[in-house]
Design goal:
Low-confidence stretches: none
Helix content: under 10%
Strand content: over 45%
Distance between the termini: 22 Å
Structural class: mainly beta
Largest sheet: 4 strands, antiparallel
Number of strands: 12
Order of helices and strands: EEEEEEEEEEEE
Strand order of the largest sheet: 7-8-9-10
Number of helices: 0
Mean pLDDT: 92
């Protein structure tokens, strides 16, 4: 089983790995009630990043494997998605996990990865039921050499 490199629970505006490494501070964020029990665990609190909230962490010291990795996020959109909204993004791997507008009441989740050989590739919820604001979701981006997959619960 793989060892998590970053394992944050976003229940405060400053978080870190369980061992305290890779501290991450969010700006323009507010602690709010979380989803509670999910497929990924119990999260009584969460961060609301609003339209301006953000955080960044230097991951240059991480021993990464560009050939295979996975990401998990528990998220909720608080209102309509009218433009691309980044959830997670990295220049080092590189990957992006973002929300894209579908209609005035639904949005899609897009997982995009740029392998060294193939250029950007994506998986999306576009051809499944639309995601809705106000609902908590657990999403996994899984990448293995040349395949990108997106799972949403």
């Amino acid at each position: 089983m793989a060892t998590p490199l970053l394992d944050y629970t976003l229940d405060d505006t400053t978080v870190g790995n369980p061992d305290g490494s890779f501290e991450l501070t969010f700006t323009d964020a507010t602690v709010v009630p979380g989803p509670g029990a999910t497929a990924a665990g119990n999260y009584p609190d969460a961060l609301d990043l609003g339209a301006l909230g953000k955080g960044a962490v230097d991951v240059s010291a991480l021993a990464i494997d560009r050939r295979q990795f996975s990401l998990r996020i528990v998220f909720q959109a608080n209102g309509p998605i009218t433009a691309r909204a980044n959830l997670l993004e990295s220049n080092r791997l590189p990957f992006a996990l973002f929300l894209a507008p579908r209609s005035s009441t639904e949005f899609d989740l897009v997982a995009s990865v740029s392998p060294v050989v193939h250029g950007w590739r994506a998986a999306t919820t576009r051809f499944a039921a639309g995601l809705r604001p106000g609902v908590w979701y657990v999403a996994d981006l899984v990448y293995d050499i040349d395949t990108v997959a997106l799972f949403v619960d």
